[in-house]
Amino acid sequence: MWREASAYLLKMMQLSDLGDCPANCSGHGDCNDGVCVCELEYQGTECDDINNAYFVAFGLIFYLLSICCTIQLILCIQSDFRRLKNPSFQKALRVTTQKLLYVLVIIAALSRALYFSLQPYLSETWASNMMSMYYPLLLSCFSLVVCFWAEAFHLSEKQHNNPGFLRDSFRYFILFNVLLYILLVAEFITMETTSSDHQILGNVFNGCFAGLMTIEVIFFLAYGVEVFFKIKGAFTVNYHSTNQQPTSAIGQNSLKASGQSTDQSPDLTVHVSSQSVDVSIMHQSRIGLLFQGLLQIVMVLFLMLNVTEPQWRESLPVLKRNVHDVLFRIVEVGLALWFPCVLWKSRSPESLWMLNPTRLFRQTRDEEKSQGGKKEEDWLLCRTRAPTYDSTADSSKVEKEVECWICYDHQRTDAGPMIQPCECKGDVAYVHHECLKRWLMESADNPEALQCKVCQSKYQLKTGSANILKGFQLKQGLFTAIALGIMTAGPVAVYFVMKKYPSDVVSVVSIGACIFLEMVCLKYLGISLCNAYNRASISSLHIIGKMVNRPETVVTTTTTTPTTSSSESSATSASCTSSKEPSVSIVSVSVIGPEVSSDGVQVHHG
What we know:
This protein is of the alpha+beta class. Helices cover 57% and strands 8% of the residues.
């Protein structure tokens, strides 16, 4: 009786195993309690169907990445074309570090996107080759960045305000990339000509790429730490020599006066003051550097794990293997996504910390203005009053009110008092309080707007309570409301689409599009709120300056008709000195407000 019961139970267990997990889950999963748990690339009760959602999701991500970089590349070329005095596409298409990075990331993202799109229809060799193309292209990007930072660290004559291409390090960049693509071509040829296990060959070449990435990440972190953490290198010497020329000239003059030679001076060591460093840019660069360095280290570990995959993969359950694969793909996306993020200002490469390390210093923000931004400063500097002389009367009195350099209206009463907020002299010294406040509000997105663009002195401000709602303009508030509406309606629309079309492909595409749209709207919302807060905080400020209460009075007395220019006046004075003709006397008296001392009477005798 006992033997028959044991035999029956054993037979039922065998039949249960064979019936519940047929074909051993097709070799693409594990059987747990009679249910097949499939690997990430497969689905179905027998794990024999392709998981289209997995391939569509990652393929869509890489397609979007390539499209984003393509748009940035087009904007970069368009910006270079507009900057040329004699526009030509040949000059606009010249190779620069920024453009080459865009091109390499586009090719890398497209190779991985095509892999996820065509992998179910490709042979094993072609799928493996397309899988391996991604790593050499990314290594080319990283090596280009390393060479660029090396030149910033070693070459003091390199110009950073107009980032071009590599100079002295170009040969090392070419040598490293020749080695990379020799390995890639060797992998293609080996995969097509040999009958060995293709997976083993792919793991061997991945190990080679992991070794090269290890060497590259060492130099990446070494130069990155020197430039962005220690803020040391030739770019600091170049910056201080160009922005503090008077100090260096005084030092050279003192050396010459003491009989020392300036050519035989030791290496220049620049100690960067913490006050001259832009803390915001410094933290951005450090976070970006550490993030990319960490991703590269994790990628090296994943590639080395792939080399030893036959030893450990079968010992892990399917769920852990799936987690490993998902993390692997996310790190691959992050490596390429880093470049369009740090190169997001495609039209102004001089404002990117990765291509212009001098962005770490505060003063470079005013130097990097485009030609359109400089027109405003040039207009302020060049604005002068032409002298007025009366040639028909012997004496005249001309009263000139002190004018606001923004509105030119000295009779306004709704713009607040007339003040002198900075150290400027002449026509650009006086401004209405409310005019200047509105001027600052219009340029609230510029962190350096709270200082005079002519004399570079900071405005003395008294802070008040800020109401962020007052910082929204009509157009900005409208677009912010639209962005909030899109962010709210996006998930609802995805829910109804998935409910109406219960398909994996439709679900993945709709969710991916919704996530992308949410990210774009969230970025715009953050920028809009920051600008609104800056405008609101500026609107609550009270600008402290010298008060101007009395008009400027100019009294001119002439005995003969003077010339209309200062140069002609000096020439006439000189000629009168040598002749015996009656001399010319010009008496000028200027009184400008109580805060400015009165000028003495100046009498010029021939």
